[in-house]
Amino acid sequence: MSKWHTPSDNCLICHGEQELVIGIRERGPWERQHNYSRVLFCAACDVGELRSFDYDDFVVFGEEDDVMVWSAILVTADVDRLRSAFACPTPLDHGCTCAQHVRADDTSVRVPKKRLPEYGPDRHSPAGRTTMSFRVIDGLVEFC
Q1: Residue 1 covered by a domain
Q2: In-domain check, residue 80
Q3: Which residue among 74, 91, 99, 120 is least crowded, i.e. fewest CB within 10 A of its CB?
């Protein structure tokens, strides 16, 4: 398993490993907390995904789930365009603080994503996920 892949990065359709296209942001992993946003691509299913993951073991019981995942679909044509439009020489670096990574982080938070249930068959299902895209403003990718 690579440094940038966790089991939660598996494709929601085929359950196979996805390619990391853009590492938008990551905090952790620490023993009791880990969260990230990244763009992933499953070649087998020919679909991209903006995925946000949050593990927080500090939550009060009943307040919220300790593991939460949000997902939005990115069509293959947009994944291909994103690879060339992302204005950073190290797109996989979750910790990069360049203007492109900051803009990607700021705009990815506002993209409508479906929160996936923690348990049950819908946990690993693309059903109901929103489709998102991006635009290039002033040379930087913005998710929309």
Answers
A1: no
A2: yes
A3: 120
- Is 93 among the domain residues? yes
β-pairing verdict for 67-74 and 130-132:
parallel
**What is the DSSP annotation of 68-134?**
EEEEEEE-HHHHHHHHHH---S-TT-TT--SHHHHHHHHHHHHS--EEEPSSSGGGG--TTPEEE-E
**Where is mean pLDDT largest: 20-34, 60-74, 111-125?**
20-34
Residue 2, domain member (yes or no): no
Q: What is the pLDDT of residues 7-59, one digit of tens each?
A: 468 888 888 899 999 999 887 655 666 688 999 999 999 999 999 877 666 66
Q: Give the count of domains, the chain.
A: 1
The C-alpha R_g of the chain, in whole angstroms, comes to 15
Asked if 18 contacts 10 with a C-beta cutoff of 8 angstroms, the reply is: yes
Nearest by Cα to 79 from 44, 111, 48: 48
Q: What's the pLDDT score for residue 40?
A: 95
23: containing domain: 7-143
